[in-house]
User: Fold this.
Amino acid sequence: EVKLVESGGALLQPGRSLRLSCSTSGFSFDDYTISWVRQAPGKALEWLGFIRSKAYGATTEYAASVKGRFVISRDDSKTSAYLHLNSLKSEDTAVYYCARVSGYFGSERFDYWGQGTLLTVSS
Amino acid sequence: QSVLSQPPSVSGAPGQRVSISCTGGSSTIGAGYDVHWYQQLPGSAPKLLIYGNNNRPSGVPDRFSVSKSGTSASLAISGLQAEDEADYYCQSYDSSLTARVFGGGTKVTVL
Assistant:
């Protein structure tokens, strides 16, 4: 069974940093791109970025809204991916999901999702 | 403002057919990029519902179907059931933004 489990959500003050984790099982993690998507309270889904598999150089792509402030990494030995969030703002308050990515370039889909972890940024 | 536009809500009685539109532009759906659809039940994570050209993951009933024309795509739900009450999102690729993008979501209410 494919499983993704996010952790690390917290209540933090603006300006702080945080690392979210995405622990996976049930599939060959090395072969897959992993993405992060967030959902602010009562709002739509927002794609944040993804990290490709090592076979594709573990390259990353980011949404313009978070590029330079968020960093995605992976540790294949732990079948886990990470989202590093820096200089947090109140508008980063959201549930953060990691998702497995399938499909070819320009047709990527998010075929399995974790249950999400809540980040609240407030002073 | 989402790159892909969806109606905020649609509703229908049990057994009826409802349709959700997803309107993009020349850098998204109009450029030929695939559209994928997700269902998010209340309080739950999104779930892939249909991808590409009417491909359904295991367990998704064929009451759900999609179509695409020009710069728009649509998700149809036939034989509407109470369990279909959820938020639905379309998703594609935007070559101008070089980003994967979601629609604003549509809440389906079963009357």
